[in-house]
Amino acid sequence: QEQTSCESAVLFYLSRIKEFKHLNALVHVFEEEALQRAKELDALRKAGNHQGALHGVVITIKDVIAYKNHPVSAASKMLKGFNSLFHSTAVERLLNAGAIIIGTNNCDEYAMGSSNENSVYGPVKNFLDETLVPGGSSGGSAVAVQANLCMISLGSDTGGSVRQPADFCGVVGMKPTYGRVSRHGLIAYGSSFDQIGVLSHTVQDAALV
Length: 209
What we know:
By secondary structure, the protein is an alpha/beta fold. Strands 1-3-2-4-6-5 form a six-stranded mixed β-sheet, sandwiched between helices. Strand 2, helix 3 and strand 3 form a beta-alpha-beta unit. The longest helix has 16 residues. It starts with 5 loop residues before the first helix and ends with a helix.
């Protein structure tokens, strides 16, 4: 059975992120931190320990989801330079399960849009055809999975903002039942509709997350 390390996985995705930087799918990359966490997870596994169901899974999160002491700007100039004061519940649970958060994804400003052209960081390009939009508002999250810049990505969906870009990019996008995933720490568009959703290569991966 083929084996790899968390560190080698992170190095692979960092190289992909650099190679396809022009797609504009990520707005912040946590290179040193991701490598350090990978080394810690590798040491745990070597010692015979396993952190959880997502041990070593490399994940990106939409720039509307709080990750303590990391930038969250909702792709808006208004929040540029702001760092989150706490973890969203979704992020906290990912970390507790052993995930590695490698960066944050571009999106339509305040998650309001369906093409990911309306961002202070500029538009996101569709990996399959760079002349086309990736959909939105979670376009950066969809392209990150589509272009193999991560294993899994989190987006947010009010009226289609995970499902529509997933369709445009040919990946799996799931909006969970309302209340199934906590919205604590999500910069909301419409609180009565918003859900944190999963973008992945397979239905099985989405279910696991």
